[in-house]
Design brief:
Elements (H helix, E strand, L loop, with lengths): L2 E4 L5 H12 L3 E6 L14 E5 L5 H9 L7 E4 L16 H28 L3 E6 L15 H22 L3 E7 L16 H14 L7 E4 L8
Parallel strand pairs: 1-2, 1-4, 2-3, 4-5, 5-6, 6-7
Bound molecules: NADP nicotinamide-adenine-dinucleotide phosphate.
Length: about 220
Amino acid sequence: MPVALVTGANRGLGLELTRQLLESGYTVHATYRTSKGGLADLHHPELHLASMDVRMPEDIASVLQQIKTGLDLVVNNAGVSDGRWANIEEIDFEKVTEVMDINAVAPVRVTQQALPLLDQNGGGTVVMLSSLMASIADCQSGKSYAYRASKTALNMFTVAMKKELTDRNISLLIVHPGWVETDMGGPKAPVKADESVRGILERIEEQTVAMSGRFVEYTGRTLPW
Ligand SMILES: NC(=O)c1ccc[n+]([C@@H]2O[C@H](COP(=O)([O-])OP(=O)(O)OC[C@H]3O[C@@H](n4cnc5c(N)ncnc54)[C@H](OP(=O)(O)O)[C@@H]3O)[C@@H](O)[C@H]2O)c1
């Protein structure tokens, strides 16, 4: 039975990822920052809950220490939006630092600490929940400064890891989930979480080490950097 770790799993895409991974036969270590949220209603023998603020190295270490089986899949899902400041004068730099830490640095921190567990199972897949807003080529409307920059940095961290991790049989998948109806995506979003996650699971299923570092939408469409 494959074993997965999902961050930010108490609501939104993380919760749906947990639900569908369990349905597909994974053992899931689902982590939440403070509140269990929707995880409290998911009753499954292969579901393990643990609290983890992805900014805190000691939280990550203590969760990973409890996983004795090794890992086959790490889904770096936890993320935050920014204030979408109306203009450049309004950028709040404390918030910029927080967004960069959670969206760009924390997934690297989690991945680094998960490597021994991936090695234990002979490799695996690491998924980064990125965004089309990371795309420099697609950035027409501007703004959302910190969110865009954080996801672009995440993409580069991921591509930069590719060579070293390929040697360890670990494949990296950078995925844009679509504009999804969650707290972050809002009620006008055209894609439902279950549809997005079905697509993400298909992308995980087809992922090979040769595909490592690709940047795709949940549908499989390749995205421009
Ligand atoms: N929805 C979209 O349209 C969309 C589009 C492109 C990319 N994405 C990306 O997809 C991912 C999931 O988004 P979503 O729409 O599901 O967002 P969401 O509904 O706002 O949920 C975000 C999740 O991240 C968790 N989180 C935030 N900061 C954390 C921290 N420091 N430590 C641990 N967990 C933390 C939240 O936990 P709390 O409940 O504790 O806050 C929550 O579980 C994000 O990376 C997002 O950037 C979403």
